[in-house]
Write a structure and sequence with these properties.
Helices cover 41% and strands 16% of the residues. It has 20 helices and 16 strands. The strands form three sheets. Strands 1-2-3-4-5-7-9 form a seven-stranded mixed beta sheet, with helices on both faces. The longest helix is centred in the N-terminal third of the chain and has 25 residues, at 18-42. The radius of gyration is 25 Å and the shape is globular.
């Protein structure tokens, strides 16, 4: 028997209005920019290196992932643009990662991008691998690593060596926590690349193709004087028959990937979280309208209820404290049958909205209901009146609640993300299970104009104290430079390249992305907390 349905949000949109058409066109342009960047990630090392890889009789890394997945399975790619336009890094940071179904089980899949410097790992690749490992650990996901790696990018070893070691530690910790790790070795995996199979629970190696050793024949000769070849030093057959590093000897890559699917099938994996509580009901409004709803200009507000109506089941939403603290919308809904508590910004955070948010987070923890944060926030309200009313202590209550909440949290950045508002709405530092951004998103301590204005005030006050005149031309130039710098550094592609989020997504795909993330999170137990830090009153 289905529970009583929640009320339907009334959210008619005029698709012919000037505001809608402007937003739709400009958000469409940002999506084109996003798609161009994603195409770079999918291209790997480029035509020359992908051709060379194929001519060697190997599958491309993305083909390997595709063959692992169940037919018609989703694949939620994560951190796809890590390294994009950051120095000489490849878009994707030489690693593919995401969540998909393998033998009916949600699995975290990673694959070395072997067409980029032989799959060598750079510092952003280490950070991306660490984030993917964190996702597997937090959500209790089995993982499959498809590797072909030259190890560390040696010219940059000083940026890799110390943090890179943590990845091996996390492999063994996931094993201890009964989260199976499966490694498929498709090519040469040297030095640090050799420790991934060495520390995985299951290892599959491809005959005449996989090679795993701490040091290759040239280094062995230099270090010990011993003459050896690749196969007897670290070949798949040797490791399967002599060293025992390999558990399965595959005849070719397709066979290796079938063996990985077979291993997942015999795990008899069971989720610890509850099943969806309701039948799935699509939204009553077209998700395509989100492109016209989300403001392309962050100074122009939009009603987050219109967003909620296009991502939740049946556009149904049970709002909490609708008449109080109305710059923060709180309420309950379902996404693909999973119950969620939603917190969505509808303006700057005042004391009332912060108190409301803190209470709502406590209520959701009381019933073990996952949280969804729709973040479009310029920060907390400032000024003498608000400071005297205790905006700091009230904001601290909400941050306390976010920090100590134990239910899975999911954050979607639908617009601005400035200042302490980022913290209160479960930004990256507060460890949401997943965090995604829309292409109109901007993130910074504050906006460029505001920061330039602060700079101007400080310089004018400093000049007045010294009894000097302000050089207006120099000041104006400095303001323009800081605005330009903040504009560049708050750009969504700049942020995602540095792993400040788990990916920039098409707003129209928000519901599906949330559904996959929710399903993955329910592989682990979903339990709320009633333990909180001190609330200042």
């Amino acid at each position: 028997m289905q529970p009583e349905p929640y009320p339907v949000i009334v959210s008619p949109i005029d698709r012919k209005s000037d505001a809608f058409r402007k937003n739709y066109d400009e958000n469409g342009q940002t999506l084109e920019r996003l798609n161009d960047a994603l195409a770079k990630a999918r291209a790997g090392g480029g035509e020359r290196y992908t051709t060379r890889h194929l001519e060697a009789g190997k599958l491309l890394p993305r083909q390997r992932v595709e063959l692992l997945l169940d037919r018609d399975s989703h694949f939620l790619e994560l951190c796809a643009l890590a390294g994009h336009e950051v120095d000489d890094h490849a878009t994707g940071a030489s690693n593919i990662g995401g969540i998909g179904l393998v033998s009916g089980v949600e699995v975290l899949i990673t694959a070395s991008e072997a067409t980029v410097k032989g799959g060598a790992v750079n510092e952003l690749g280490v950070r991306k691998a660490a984030r993917l490992a964190e996702i597997a650990e937090q959500n209790r996901l089995p993982s499959i690593s498809v590797i072909e790696s030259a190890g560390a990018d040696l010219p940059n070893q000083h940026k890799i060596f110390v943090p890179g070691g943590r990845g091996f530690r996390e492999l063994t910790r996931r094993s201890e926590a009964r989260m199976p790790t499966i490694c498929v070795v498709c090519g040469s995996s040297t030095a640090g690349g050799a420790y991934i199979p060495g520390m995985s629970d299951y290892v599959i190696m491809v005959r005449n193709q996989a090679q795993v050793y701490l040091a290759g024949p040239p280094l062995v000769k230099m270090a010990t004087g011993e003459e050896t070849d690749h196969e007897e030093l670290g070949g798949a057959e040797m490791h399967s028959k002599i060293s025992g590093v390999s558990d399965y000897l595959a005849e070719d890559e397709r066979h290796a990937l079938r063996l990985a699917r077979e291993i997942v099938a015999h795990l008899s994996w069971r989720k610890l979280g509850p099943e969806p509580l309701r039948d799935v009901e699509p939204p009553r409004y077209d998700p395509d309208e989100l492109l016209g709803i989300a403001s392309s200009d962050l100074k122009v507000p939009f009603d987050s209820r219109d967003v909620i109506a296009r991502i939740v089941d049946g556009s149904r939403f049970s709002e909490f404290k609708a008449l109080y603290g109305n710059t923060l919308i709180c309420g309950w809904a379902h996404v693909h049958g999973y119950p969620v508590g939603i917190l969505a910004n509808n303006g700057i955070l005042f004391s009332e909205s912060a108190n409301k948010g803190a209470q709502f987070i406590q209520l959701c923890n009381q019933t073990s209901t996952p949280l969804v944060f729709l973040q479009n926030i310029t920060g907390f309200m400032v000024g003498k009146k608000y400071e005297q009313e205790g905006i700091i202590k009230h904001g601290a209550k909400m941050i306390n609640a976010v920090s100590n909440s134990t239910v899975p949290a999911f954050t979607i950045m639908t617009g601005a993300s400035f200042g302490a508002g980022n913290y209160a709405m479960c930004g990256r530092a507060y460890e949401p299970r997943f965090l995604f951004a829309w292409p109109n998103h901007r993130i910074a301590v504050m906006g460029g104009k505001q920061l330039a204005g602060v700079l101007e005030i400080i310089r004018r006050e400093a000049a007045a104290k010294r009894g000097q005149e302000v050089d207006e031309q120099q000041l104006e130039m400095a303001k323009q430079m800081i605005e330009l710098k903040i504009g560049q550094e708050s750009d969504p592609l700049f942020a995602t390249a540095r792993l400040w989020d788990d990916g920039v997504i098409d707003p129209r795909h928000t519901r599906e992305v949330l559904a996959i993330a929710l399903s993955a999170a329910h592989s682990a137990a979903v339990e709320g907390s009633t333990r909180w830090g001190v609330f200042r009153h």
